[in-house]
Amino acid sequence: MDVRRAARRTACRRYRLVRDEAALYLSHMRAWEYPDAATPEFDRGIARMEREYDSDGSGVYRVTFERAGDNGGAFQTWDTDDSGGARIPVPDFGDWTAYLAAETGIAASETVDAAPPAEPGPPVQAPWAPPAPLRPRHPDAFLTPGGRFCAKDGTTYTVELHDRGEFCAPSGRIIAMDPSMLGLDDEQPFTAALPPGTHGFRLCTVRVGDDSEHVRVAAAALVVADTPVATWELALQPGQEPDVMGDGQFFGFGVDAAMGCLLDAAGQDHFAERFEDFDAFEAELVDYGGTTEGVYVSGSRTRSLQDPGSGASLVAFETGWGDGAYPVWAGRDAEGRVVALVADFLILQHAEALPQDTAAVSAN
């Protein structure tokens, strides 16, 4: 919703539906401060303020002040709105005058219906569109060898697949996380569960340019047989609502050690206790071989461990360009069953596919 005064928009508020409460909550607000009547709308050099609210109803929000717009720095802090994130009842369809009066102070008498044009005019672009959260650009490339891509700077990537054996999932509930945080960060399994059992683990790497030694991990995948994937969706944890995501946003897992892992929830307590001592983590996942060839989890090299009690697997791997936050995509077959979970390290997200003029590359 835009608020307009003096023919210029001064504020924009985005609301999201809280499905189980029949309410709307304020998820995002941006405001512009015009110094005079001649300043153009949304001038990039004027002061602006932005608030982004947490979706849990706590009223906690991140606020960013940019006193000189693009021409200066930004001050960012956290604060709390005692109203709990400005929750309001869902208005009846068409009852926007009362809504405007409550939210902006614009009285109903100040709103009028625009008269229809005498003649049809040219097509007009809608002033608003629903947010478009992040979607995978090339998800099939994570499961298909030989794909070639080109980044914006001209760097080329050639996809290679590595079959890394079996992954035991006695519960089918999968967790993605930084293994150095086991025992410190209580990650929850995804709601999109795999069927309990043993599945294949595949590592998707890209060879950067013509340098055979420069290899980056593009994705790590758990695959149920070779069932074709019909649709892809973001894998979510309990309590994560897709409706709250803005343009380009996603729920992901954080990485602070340039390493990620996938593990079955049945082994979470075991591995948390096993890696409670950071020296044990380093011994098993950072320096586990003692030889030049197998010292690190790096490039196409991975490390698989097993909980002797439940049989649950943990597999660790390098994460793309290093630290960051990364999404996991759930692939479903034509019947709606989860047949793949893919941790995406976003290397291919902004790359363009090149013609398939080379043979498929598969490495073991």
Question: Outline of this structure?
Answer:
This protein has 364 residues and is mainly β. It has three helices and 22 strands. The chain has helices spanning 96-104, 268-274, 278-286, and strands at residues 2-5, 8-18, 23-33, 47-53, 60-66, 75-80, 88-89, 148-150, 156-169, 174-177, 197-208, 215-223, 231-234, 253-255, 259-264, 303-306, 313-318, 324-326, 328-332, 338-344, 352-353, 362-363.
How is the secondary structure organized here?
Elements lengths: L1 E4 L2 E11 L4 E11 L13 E7 L6 E7 L8 E6 L7 E2 L6 H9 L43 E3 L5 E14 L4 E4 L19 E12 L6 E9 L7 E4 L18 E3 L3 E6 L3 H7 L3 H9 L16 E4 L6 E6 L5 E3 L1 E5 L5 E7 L7 E2 L8 E2 L1
Parallel strand pairs: 9-22
Antiparallel strand pairs: 1-2, 2-3, 3-4, 3-7, 4-5, 5-6, 8-9, 8-21, 9-11, 10-15, 11-12, 12-20, 13-19, 14-18, 15-17, 16-17, 19-20
Plain-language structure description:
It is a single chain. The protein is mainly beta and 364 residues long. The chain folds into two domains: 11-104, no CATH class; 139-353, no CATH class. Helix content is 7%, strand content 36%. It is built from three helices and 22 strands. The protein has helices spanning 96-104, 268-274, 278-286, and strands at residues 2-5, 8-18, 23-33, 47-53, 60-66, 75-80, 88-89, 148-150, 156-169, 174-177, 197-208, 215-223, 231-234, 253-255, 259-264, 303-306, 313-318, 324-326, 328-332, 338-344, 352-353, 362-363. Strands 8, 9, 11, 12, 13, 19, 20, 21 and 22 form a nine-stranded mixed sheet that branches. Strands 1, 2, 3, 4, 5, 6 and 7 form a seven-stranded antiparallel sheet that branches. Strands 10-15-17-16 form a four-stranded antiparallel sheet, with no helix packed on it. The radius of gyration is 25 Å and the shape is globular. The N and C termini lie far apart (53 Å).
